[in-house]
C-alpha cells in the first residue's frame, strides 16, 4: 500500500483580504504560520515518516512546507520545487477582491470562474505586469506553457504530467511523499486521483493547512482519504474556502 500526504498552504495575505491570488507570490499571515505549525504537529501522530517533499515556487507553499518539516525535524529531507505545482493562474482576476468581483459580474459568474472545470478566468496579455515570463522563475517556460489565465482543466494539464513523471516514481519506490501546494493545484490532483466528475469537482473545497492522507493501491487508486484533525475544525475551514467573504480572524 502506497502513502501520500497533500497539504494546502496556510492562510495567505490575500486569502485574508479575499483577493484572487493565483501566481501572485504573497506571504503567509501570522494565522497562516500558526496553521502550518499545527499541520506539522498533526503529522507527528501518523505512523510513518515523510521521505521526500514537493512544493510549488510560491512562498506561501514553500514556507508552509518548511514549518511542517521543522516541527517534524525533517528539514533535511529532499525537497523538489516546481511551477507545475503552482496555484491555478487566475489571469486578469489576480488581485481583485472576490466579493467586489461578484457584485460586478454576478455571483454565478464568479462561481463559474472559481469552481467550474473548464471555464477560464479573464485572460491577461503579454504586456501585463503579471505576464509570467517577466518573472525570472518563469523564464524557461515555453510559449505553450505560459499561462494567461487557467481553468481547472488547464491546471490539470500541467499538474498531471509532473505528478506522473516526478512524484509517482517516488511513490512506487516506496517513498512516503508529502506535497504542499494550493487550493486548485490540489483540486486538480484530487480530481484525477479520485476520478471525480466534472460536475462533482465544483463542490470540492480544500481547507488551508489540513493534511490530507491517502492510502493508494498498486494502481495508485485511493483505498481511503483522511483529513487530519477534528471533523468540526476541518469543516469550519472548508466552509471558509467555499465562502471566503466569511473569513473569521
Ligand atoms: O488563488 C486564489 O485566489 C486562492 O488561492 C484559491 O482561490 P479559490 O478558492 O477562489 O479558487
From TrEMBL:
Taxonomy, superkingdom: Bacteria
InterPro entries assigned to the protein according to its UniProt record, in alphabetical order: His_Pase_superF_clade-1, His_PPase_superfam, PG/BPGM_mutase_AS, Phosphogly_mut1
GO molecular function terms listed in the Swiss-Prot or TrEMBL record: phosphoglycerate mutase activity
Keywords linked to the UniProt accession: Gluconeogenesis, Glycolysis, Isomerase
EC number: 5.4.2.11
UniProt: substrate binding residues: 8-15, 21-22, 60, 87-90, 98, 114-115, 183-184
Cited PANTHER family: PHOSPHOGLYCERATE MUTASE
NCBIfam families: pgm_1 (TIGR01258), PRK14115.1 (NF010713)
Name of this protein: 2,3-bisphosphoglycerate-dependent phosphoglycerate mutase
Gene encoding the protein: gpmA
Amino acid at each position: 500500500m502506497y502513502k501520500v500526504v497533500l497539504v494546502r498552504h496556510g492562510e495567505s495575505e490575500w486569502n485574508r483580504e479575499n483577493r484572487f491570488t493565483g501566481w501572485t507570490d504573497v506571504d503567509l499571515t501570522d494565522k497562516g504560520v500558526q496553521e502550518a505549525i499545527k499541520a506539522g504537529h498533526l503529522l507527528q501522530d501518523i505512523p510513518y515518516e515523510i521521505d521526500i517533499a514537493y512544493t510549488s515556487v510560491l512562498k506561501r507553499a514553500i514556507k508552509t512546507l518548511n514549518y511542517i518539516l521543522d516541527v517534524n525535524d525533517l528539514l533535511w529531507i529532499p525537497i523538489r520545487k516546481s511551477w507545475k505545482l503552482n496555484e491555478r493562474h487566475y489571469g486578469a482576476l489576480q488581485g481583485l477582491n472576490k466579493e467586489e468581483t461578484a457584485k460586478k459580474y454576478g455571483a454565478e459568474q464568479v462561481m463559474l470562474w472559481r469552481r467550474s472545470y473548464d471555464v477560464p478566468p479573464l485572460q491577461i496579455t503579454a504586456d501585463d505586469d503579471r505576464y509570467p515570463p517577466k518573472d525570472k522563475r518563469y523564464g524557461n517556460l515555453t510559449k505553450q506553457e505560459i499561462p494567461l489565465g487557467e481553468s481547472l482543466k488547464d491546471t490539470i494539464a500541467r499538474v498531471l504530467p509532473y505528478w506522473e513523471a516526478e512524484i509517482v516514481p517516488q511513490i512506487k519506490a516506496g517513498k512516503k511523499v508529502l506535497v504542499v501546494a494550493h487550493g486548485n493545484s490540489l483540486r486538480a490532483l484530487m480530481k484525477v486521483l479520485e476520478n471525480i466528475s466534472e460536475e462533482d469537482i465544483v463542490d470540492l473545497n480544500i481547507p488551508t493547512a489540513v493534511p490530507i492522507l491517502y492510502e493508494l493501491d498498486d494502481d495508485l487508486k485511493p483505498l481511503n482519504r483522511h483529513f487530519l484533525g477534528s471533523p468540526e475544525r476541518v469543516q469550519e475551514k472548508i466552509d471558509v474556502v467555499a465562502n471566503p467573504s466569511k473569513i473569521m480572524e
